[in-house]
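Because showing beats explaining, we think one record worth quoting, sequence and backbone structure tokens together, and here it is:
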Amino acid sequence: MTTAPGDHEQALSALVILRPPGEGPVVDRLTADRVHQLIPSPSVVQTVTEWFASRGFDVGEAVGISFALTGPRSLFEDTFHLPAGRPGYEPLGLDALPQDVARHISTITFAPPPEFGPDNP
């Protein structure tokens, strides 16, 4: 999906949840007393965030087990091999990512839009 000069393409922001050391989904093991054990190593964070930044995404600072990923809809479509115009609120598949990046990610998800405001009377 390309935009003409002057067009303002919709920006999307996703939350990347990193895979903790060990096996299994992070949410199955997340408790306040164990959160420090689930934080990925700095080298894992660097590998994943640098790859997304090299693709052109704005990458937020990693906090705990996650970081924000922001970019135009077309960048998400190109990176994740999505059809143009696909709704942007279901979790993204990781199959299009390089294995050395995907293996460190538990999920990439979007916050659903609010149920109020100008677009939702």
About this structure: The first helix runs from residue 35 to 38. Confidence is low (pLDDT under 50) at residues 1-6.
